[in-house]
Write a structure and sequence with these properties.
By secondary structure, the chain is α/β, with parallel strands linked by helices. It has helices spanning 14-25, 41-44, 72-86, and strands spanning 3-5, 7-10, 30-34, 51-52, 70-71, 90-92, 98-102, 105-110, 113-117. Helix 1 links the parallel strand 2 (7-10) and strand 3.
Length: 121
């Protein structure tokens, strides 16, 4: 077993980034696994200058991840800064191959590594 965590987050898009920020601030042992070599692939793949999230025009923030209708570059920069500023535990280039439930825990397999989310007592 490579490592045990309270939470394993799969995917580094907006929801995954928000979850990682919350887990980090809550003091949880967490890891976010992202298959790409960068976070926010949803926005990353947009054309340069294209608006990311054009509707609704007012998006109520529920967490700390900045988000408002903006060109792709204006979204990516603050998200990347958030990752750096919070020193989020993100492993890039880790494509999840399998998720298994073992008793009350979960095992997430990535290549030759296995990560385990364990229930705290």
């Amino acid at each position: 077993m490579d490592r045990q965590y309270d939470l394993i987050i799969i995917g580094g898009r907006p929801a995954g980034l928000s979850a990682a920020i919350s887990a980090h601030k809550s003091g949880l042992r967490y890891v976010m696994l992202e298959k790409e070599d960068h976070v926010a692939d949803t926005a990353y793949c947009y054309q340069k200058g294209k608006l990311f999230i054009a509707e609704p025009s007012a998006i109520p923030l529920k967490g700390e991840l900045w988000l408002e209708p903006s060109p792709r570059e204006a979204v990516l920069q603050p998200w990347e800064e958030t990752v750096r500023n919070h020193s989020l535990n993100i492993l890039l280039g880790h494509c999840v191959e399998e998720i298994d439930r073992v008793d009350i825990n979960f095992q997430v397999k990535v290549a030759a590594k296995t990560f385990q989310a364990v229930k705290s007592s």
